[in-house]
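In the current project phase, our protein records have gained a structure token line. A sample record follows, to show the layout:
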Amino acid sequence: MRRLPTVMAFSVLALAAHKLQVTLADRTMGLAALMFALRWRLEYLLNQLKKSGDDEQKRDESMKMIEYLRKEIKYQVNVFLQR
């Protein structure tokens, strides 16, 4: 089997490392954008919870949605870390 010249081997490794960094940067930006959107959804739900006052049905609905959002955030972070 023929080997690559040393200069070409280093350039191939450098290209692979650069591609890994770009991929990681893209994934990180994607997660950051998603977390930003989820944060605004959480803010909205917390305001709904404050506005619900004594209405237990609205409060329970808001709490269920907040719990769902918590699970979504945990899932998205786990997906990011496992890639």
